[in-house]
Write a structure and sequence with these properties.
2 domains, Rossmann fold, elongated, 183 residues, alpha/beta, 17% strand, six-stranded mixed beta sheet, 7 helices
């Protein structure tokens, strides 16, 4: 079955978010960039699926030995490493510039996540929406709480019988039927 068109293309400046989120910065400082990239990708996997976003997590290649690459994590999340010498900012700007002439712009939003002020102004100039790294963190947390509430175990009944799960009026009616009292 073909996947429906996602409601938005979300471009995330990966190292900008790693630096802005205290938890990811701690992971980066203690365990390195690889661990912080993994944790961010793991976090965005659930968020992207829940929001139905096509998320592209973009990292500068300058912190890696290899050149440009793309890794598909899920149908909703891909990780992009830029060409050597190219920044995530220039990659994101190029995608925004191309999106201006793409027909998807009429039915799909383009959202860029970065807290870089200059990048914010540039992507808005291309017609994309901008979201700060802090706002993304707040949305991820809000959605995680919403999912936890949905998955919370339902309240257990007071007894082991199915009848105990019924409202009092239904219990009374069943009792009447059991003892042969019918209208």
């Amino acid at each position: 079955m073909a996947r429906s068109q996602p409601q938005a293309l979300l471009l995330v400046d990966g190292y900008n978010v790693v630096g802005a989120w205290p938890e990811l910065a701690r992971i980066r400082d203690r365990h390195g960039l690889e661990a912080s990239r993994y944790r961010l990708a793991e976090t965005l996997t659930g968020y992207s699926a829940y929001q139905d976003f096509d998320t592209r997590l973009v990292f500068d290649a300058q912190y890696r030995d290899s050149g440009s690459s793309q890794e598909v994590i899920t149908p909703n999340l891909t990780i992009h490493f830029t060409e050597f010498g190219q920044t995530a900012d220039t990659h994101i700007e190029r995608v925004c510039a191309d999106f201006r002439y793409d027909l998807r712009k009429f039915y799909q939003r383009l959202i860029v996540v970065t807290s870089d002020r200059a990048q914010q102004q540039t992507v808005i100039g291309y017609g994309a929406e901008w979201m700060s790294s802090d706002r993304l963190a707040a949305e991820v947390e809000m959605i995680a709480r919403r999912i936890q509430r949905k998955q919370a175990t339902p309240k257990k009944s007071s007894g082991r019988f199915l009848a105990n799960c019924l409202d009092p009026a239904a219990q009374k009616r069943l009792s009447e039927l059991r003892f042969g009292k019918s209208d």
